[in-house]
Design a protein that fits this description.
mainly alpha; globular; 318 residues
C-alpha cells in the first residue's frame, strides 16, 4: 500500500522496507524508460518547432528522433547519463516514499483529516516530492547535462562532469532550475499520489475485485493514469526547468540548432512565449506523456509489489 493506512496496522511496512521498495521501484523503472527520457529532453531543449515544416528543426517526431539519435550516436545514446539518472531514481524513490509514509502517518495521528482523502494525499505527496527533490537535485542537473550533450561529448565521465561544472560555473550550477522544479514538483507529485488513490477507488467501483488476480494490473493502470493527468497539468514548468538546467552549456548544444540564454524563470517564460508561442510550453509533451504513463505506472506497480513481498516474508517468519 502507498502511504500509512490506520485501518491496516498489521500490513503497514517498516520505514526501512518503504525506503527499499521506493529505491528498487525507481531503479527498475529508470532502466525501462531511459530512452523516452532522452528523447523528451532533446525535444524540450530544441528552440525550433517540432515539425517537418521547419527545415532547421533537428527533431520533429518520436520515431524520427529515435532513428536519428540511433544513427548519429548509437544505441548507447538512449542511456546517456544513466548512472546519474539511476542515482537520481534510487535516491528520489527512497526519500519520496519514506517521506510520504511519515507525513501521512503524522497527519493521521494529529487527527487533522482522514489520510485517505484526496487533499491529504495531494499535500503529503507534494511535500514528500519537495523533500526528495532537494536531496537529489544536483544529480538531476548532471543527468540533464549528460542526456543533452551530443557528439563529441563534453563530459566523458561523471567525475569529469562534476569537476568541470564546479570549476567553470561554480557550486550553484548544481541547483540550476531548482525554483521551477520545486514549483512544478509539488502539484505534479501531489496529483500523482492523490489521483492514484482516487483512480484505485474508481477501478474498484467499476470492476469488482476478484481477489489478488487483478491487483497488480490495477496498480499499473491507476499509476499510469495518475502519471498522465499530473504530467499534462504541470508540463510547462518541467520544460522551463530543463531549459534553465542547461544554461552555460550552450556550446555543447550548438549541433542541435539554436540555443538561448535565460536570466531566470520569468525571463525563460517570456522568451519561450515570444519566440515559440504558447505551443512552445508543450514541446516534447508526447514522449513525456508516454514516459509518465510508463514510469508512474511501473513505480507504483513495483513499489506495491515489493511492499507486499516484504509483508509476505514477515508473515512467513511469524
Amino acid at each position: 500500500m502507498v502511504g500509512y493506512d490506520p485501518k491496516a496496522d498489521d500490513r503497514n511496512n517498516s520505514k526501512f522496507e518503504v525506503a527499499v521498495a521506493g529505491s528498487v521501484s525507481g531503479l527498475v523503472t529508470r532502466v525501462l524508460i531511459s530512452p523516452l527520457d532522452v528523447i523528451k529532453i532533446r525535444f524540450q531543449l530544441q528552440i525550433e518547432r517540432l515539425s517537418h515544416s521547419d527545415p532547421k528543426a533537428k527533431y520533429h517526431g518520436i520515431l524520427q528522433a529515435s532513428r536519428q539519435i540511433f544513427r548519429e550516436e548509437g544505441p548507447t545514446a538512449f542511456w546517456k547519463g544513466h548512472i546519474p539518472a539511476q542515482l537520481l531514481s534510487v535516491g528520489y524513490g527512497a526519500v519520496q516514499f519514506l517521506s510520504f509514509q511519515l507525513l501521512t502517518e503524522l497527519v493521521h495521528r494529529a487527527n487533522v483529516y482522514d489520510t485517505h482523502e484526496f487533499s491529504a494525499h495531494f499535500v503529503c505527496g507534494g511535500l514528500a516530492a519537495c523533500a526528495a527533490t532537494l536531496t537529489v537535485h544536483p544529480v538531476d542537473v548532471l543527468r540533464t547535462r549528460f542526456a543533452a550533450q551530443g557528439e563529441p561529448r563534453v563530459y566523458k565521465t561523471l567525475q569529469d562532469a562534476v569537476v568541470t561544472m564546479y570549476r567553470t560555473e561554480g557550486p550553484l550550477v548544481f541547483y540550476k532550475g531548482l525554483a521551477p522544479t520545486l514549483i512544478a514538483i509539488f502539484p505534479y507529485a501531489g496529483l500523482q499520489f492523490s489521483c492514484y488513490k482516487s483512480l484505485k477507488h474508481a477501478y474498484d467501483w467499476a470492476i469488482p475485485a476478484d481477489g489478488k488476480q487483478t491487483e497488480n494490473l490495477k496498480n499499473l493502470l491507476c499509476g499510469s493514469g495518475a502519471g498522465i493527468i499530473s504530467k499534462t497539468l504541470t508540463y510547462p514548468l518541467d520544460l522551463f526547468k530543463k531549459r534553465l538546467q542547461v544554461g552555460g552549456f550552450e556550446d555543447a548544444r550548438a549541433a542541435f540548432g539554436q540555443v538561448r540564454s535565460y536570466g531566470g524563470l520569468l525571463d525563460c517564460i517570456k522568451q519561450v512565449l515570444q519566440e515559440e508561442g504558447g505551443r512552445g510550453f508543450f514541446k516534447g509533451l508526447s514522449p513525456s506523456l508516454l514516459k509518465a504513463a510508463v514510469s508512474t505506472g511501473f513505480v507504483f506497480f513495483w513499489y506495491e509489489l515489493f511492499c507486499n513481498l516484504f509483508h509476505c516474508m514477515k508473515k512467513a517468519d511469524s
